[in-house]
Automatic annotation (TrEMBL):
<dbReference type="InterPro" id="IPR011042">
    <property type="entry name" value="6-blade_b-propeller_TolB-like"/>
</dbReference>
<dbReference type="InterPro" id="IPR011659">
    <property type="entry name" value="WD40"/>
</dbReference>
<dbReference type="Pfam" id="PF07676">
    <property type="entry name" value="PD40"/>
</dbReference>
<protein>
    <submittedName>
        <fullName>Transporter</fullName>
    </submittedName>
</protein>
<feature type="signal peptide">
    <location>
        <begin position="1"/>
        <end position="19"/>
    </location>
</feature>
<comment type="similarity">
    <text>Belongs to the TolB family.</text>
</comment>
<keyword id="KW-0732">Signal</keyword>
């Protein structure tokens, strides 16, 4: 693989992840059973896809691939395109509202015009009906990367770069003024609401390395939850709110979350603070960027990767 070539492509096409540019990778969509520890394969392709969401009715998963979104039926394993209208440059930051009616996407687009200021290109958040339709813009500014719905469906949480700093923000689904929740220098990313709507979990470099944190939904009472040798990203609370599943890089990655690395999925029990390693494989970017728990909280979906020779 020509690493320099793919790094250049990544810089030229920021709406697509590093791994999405690779044409020599196998992606495998899997399900992990919390009770048994078993892993089941749903779909495997000699192509790159990413970031499963589990539908609220339990019947299908959503993945992104080459800028588009697809449903993967859990009975037939059939993949079908979701109509996202003009939004055909979607990245791996997408997810389903708690009521199962809406889909949030992050699509490469121009920022909203402001008099006297040039527009910018970058990831912008939109919402549309889950069954497909015309996306409605939520964030006026770019780049903005969706990561969580509030349980009442009225707000979304996201990572955004403003003036050179990447922080956690929330905004009404109707748009308007965004609320900044983190201000510490360094990357804050992956915000996701707890099922009771009182807490936001996120990953942050505030301690000097990437760890999992929590805070109140107004940004107060920040607390670090992990502190180990790993680089920890993308904490997803279980439907009962008692645990978090997240991805850990075996080697410190700084503020990066690259693909094709040695990683583990781990489970943090919030009441005790205990952490259990569930499984290890090659992955990273695209594996579990967004919420992927089954509605009953017994399973979650993720993606593993392997190089292939073509």
């Amino acid at each position: 693989m020509n690493i320099k070539r793919y790094l250049l492509l990544f810089l030229l096409f920021p709406y697509m992840s590093f791994a999405q540019q690779m044409d020599n990778v196998r992606s495998t969509l899997e399900i992990y059973n919390i009770d048994t520890g078993e892993r089941d394969t749903v779909r495997s392709e000699e192509a790159h896809f990413e970031a499963p969401n589990w539908s609220r009715d339990g019947n299908f998963l959503i993945i992104n691939q080459q800028g588009k979104l697809y449903k993967v039926d859990l009975e037939s394993n059939k993949k079908t395109l979701i109509n996202t209208g003009f939004a055909d440059r979607c990245n791996n930051d997408h997810g389903i509202s708690f009521d199962g009616k809406w889909l949030a996407i992050s699509h490469q687009a121009a920022s909203e015009p402001v008099a006297g200021q040039p527009t910018k290109q970058g990831s912008r958040i939109y919402i549309l009906p889950l069954e497909g339709g015309t996306p409605k813009a939520v964030t006026p500014n770019v780049p903005s990367y969706w990561h969580g719905w509030s349980p009442d469906g009225q707000r979304v949480a996201y990572c955004a770069e403003r003036d050179g700093e990447y922080d956690v923000y929330t905004i009404s689904v109707d748009g308007g003024e965004e609320t900044r929740l983190t201000t510490t220098p360094g990357l804050d990313d992956g915000p996701e609401y707890s099922p009771d709507g009182k807490t936001i979990y996120y990953n942050s470099m505030a301690s000097g390395k990437m760890e999992i944190w929590q805070m109140n939904v107004d940004g107060s009472n920040k607390k670090q939850l992990t502190n180990d040798k790993y680089s920890n990203w993308f904490a997803h609370p279980s439907p009962d709110g008692k645990s978090l599943v997240y991805i850990s890089y075996h080697e410190d990655q700084g503020s990066a979350h690259p693909g094709m690395k040695a990683v583990s999925l781990r489970l943090l029990t919030l009441a005790s603070g205990s952490v259990k390693t569930l499984c290890s494989f090659t992955g990273g970017q695209g594996t579990i960027n967004v919420p992927s728990w089954s509605p009953d909280g017994k399973r979650f979906a993720f993606v593993t990767y392997a190089y292939i020779n073509k």
